[in-house]
Design goal:
Organism: Capillibacterium thermochitinicola
Pfam family, one: CtsR_C
InterPro entries: CtsR_C (IPR041473), CtsR_C_sf (IPR041908), CtsR_N (IPR040465), CtsR_N_sf (IPR041902)
Helix content: 55-70%
Distance between the termini: 49 Å
Number of domains: 2
Protein name: CtsR family transcriptional regulator
């Protein structure tokens, strides 16, 4: 059985499947799902982030709204710079998972390549000798290097 957060996310995803952007009222959505507005905030803050490929604009007040826009990278000539920026100098395992899902959804990366990256990077970081405090930094280096080759225009060094 799906959680309430999953149901809210799926509802918003279904709306976004029809358009690149939607405007909703937090209060009305909360009434529809019979939940507190904070539950709507939680879904937006955890599942509709820039890492997941969305831009959120919010206007507060009685007539306030939330605008969710899908950020389409495949139309952006600076996509590689944005990928580098999102990865940064460190990335958590959860952050890597979200980024890989987004790249597959945006058709910048094949599902099999995403799976392969996930397996190789996680296997590399499983080594018990590898210090825990350096894993996010090493994950970022591995992921950035692989994505620049797979999604980009850079050729691997022979």
């Amino acid at each position: 059985m799906s959680s309430l957060s999953d149901l809210i996310e799926q509802y918003l995803q279904d709306l976004l499947a029809k358009r690149d952007s939607i405007e909703i009222q937090r209060r009305q959505l909360a009434q529809m799902f019979r939940c507190a507005p904070s539950q709507i905030n939680y879904v937006l803050e955890t599942r509709f982030t820039m890492d997941h490929g969305y831009l959120i604009v919010s206007r507060r007040g009685g007539g306030g709204y939330i605008k969710i826009t899908r950020a389409n990278w495949h139309e952006d000539p600076d996509v590689l710079e944005k990928i580098k920026e999102l990865i940064g100098t460190e990335i958590t395992q959860e952050g890597m998972a979200a980024l890989l899902r987004r790249l597959v959804r945006e058709e910048l990366l094949e599902e099999k390549d995403s799976w392969l990256l996930w397996q190789v990077i996680n296997k590399e970081l499983e080594n018990p000798v590898f210090p825990e405090e350096k894993k996010d930094k090493h994950r970022a280096i591995l992921l950035r290097t692989a994505l620049l080759v797979l999604c980009g225009r850079e050729k691997p060094i022979a």
